[in-house]
């Protein structure tokens, strides 16, 4: 009989929100910084603000227009979004921080 495969080692961490009801993560870099989006306090279910989570907590990266989302972070800590609410929807990579 074959022995069972060992389970992968990982840790699940609750990142929290910006005070609102929800958040979601999209990317993590080698320093453990995580980017995604979260609802600020008093904004259910939208708008979603781009967010950076690090060892110092959650940081609202602000929005241009109604809402935004942080989609990627590189190992230098540069954060990029993928879609911004403009007069029309436009997809592009734009540095946020």
Overall description:
- The chain is mostly beta strands.
- It has no helices and seven strands.
- It has strands at residues 19-28, 34-40, 49-54, 57-60, 68-73, 79-84, 90-95.
- The strands form two sheets. A four-stranded antiparallel β-sheet has the order 1-2-3-4, with no helix packed on it.
- A hairpin with a 5-residue loop joins strand 6 and strand 7.
- The protein is elongated and about 60 Å long.
What is the percent of helical residues?
under 10%
Which structural class fits the helix and strand makeup? mainly beta
H-E string: EEEEEEE
Strand order of the largest sheet: 1-2-3-4
For the record, give the distance between the C-alpha atoms at the N and C termini, rounded to a whole number: 53 Å
Helical run tally: 0
What is the number of strand segments? Answer: 7
